[in-house]
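Proteins fold reproducibly. Look at a sample protein:
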Amino acid sequence: MTDTIATRLARAGVSLPQAAAPAANYVPYARFGNLLQTSGQLPLDGGKLVASGKLGDEVALEGGQKAARACAINILAQASAALDGDLERIGRLLKLTVFVASAPSFTEQHKVANGASDFLVDILGDKGRHARSAVGVPSLPMDAAVEIEALFEIA
């Protein structure tokens, strides 16, 4: 059996949800040549936030990592929608930008971001190794703890 993205998702016990519709006046993803940019994805599971509030206050590091993983799952759902269900068309994940709602003294945004990075490398293999920014922000839409956007190269 070939080790595909679909088999790695199944092995991880992950079923991709339906790609979330935009919550405002934007598109969920944009294609330009061989690039695919997703809009920021929130940590939604079953339509509900996995974690809300600020890291370093209401949300512990582990909760932030779980939220980042949920964002990554939703990123793959958007990529799947953009690629007509064929994630094997992903050439490489180029960059993640991770926004972490943070209390003023919280400085472990990079560790929160690992919740998404580790998951995406596990699922995409070497295609999932990426550049990344992890940024602390005072608040995010819907009081989400994390929001992540991704840039892919499409093969």
Remarks:
- The first strand starts at residue 29 and ends at 32.
